[in-house]
Amino acid sequence: MGDAANSGVIVYCSDRKNWIPNSVEIQILDDSSPKWANAEPTWKCGALFGHSVPKKQAVKKAGEWNRMTVTCKGQQIRVVLNGAVVTDANLKNWTSAKKNPDGSDIPPWLNKPFAELATKGHIGLQGKHSGAPIYFRSVKIKPLD
Fold first, then answer.
1. Whole-model pTM above 0.85?
2. What CATH number was assigned to the domain covering residues 6-125?
3. For the stretch 36-70, what's the b/e string if a residue is b when 16 or more beta carbons lie within 10 angstroms of its beta carbon?
4. Within a 13 Å sphere around the CA of 84, how many CA atoms are in the beta-carbon half?
5. CA–CA gap between residue 25 and residue 12 (Å, rounded)
């Protein structure tokens, strides 16, 4: 990722035209960039954007390749970043469109509770966002049994 990168992996997208509230975004962020020093904890790399704080920071500095594995099985989403489990969340716990299970606020543009989202849909990669480049390689998608 480039310096100050801000991007994401989109899963369970049920509406490609109005994808933001109708999907889950796994955040990709240059956590060490001064630009994002004051970003909300739910914006950190590996978070379910706006909804969960990663258990730990595992992102490499800008200019280095990261390895992220996102596993979605029903309402369970697990994110492994550079070998560390950073998110392991069950969407059924998000029953409100305004408050996360821990009581923190959900951004107003994410106005659909995760518990109500479809668990099938499109997968996407967010491109250049906030003026910083992002690069993807060796992307693999496989069905789970």
1. yes
2. 2.60.120.560
3. beeeeebbbbbbbbbbbbbeeebbbebeeeeebeb
4. 13
5. 9
Q: Tell me the domain boundaries of the chain.
A: 6-125
Of the candidates 114, 87, 74, the residue with the CA atom closest to the CA atom of residue 98: 114
Dig out the tokens for 68 from the structure. 């992220």
Beta-carbon contacts of residue 15 (< 8 Å; ≥ 6 apart): 22, 23
Full DSSP string of 14-51:
S-STTTTTTSEEEEEE-TTSGGGTT--GGGSTTSBTTT
**pLDDT mean for each 10 residues of the chain (145 residues):** 87 94 95 89 95 95 94 97 98 96 94 95 86 88 84
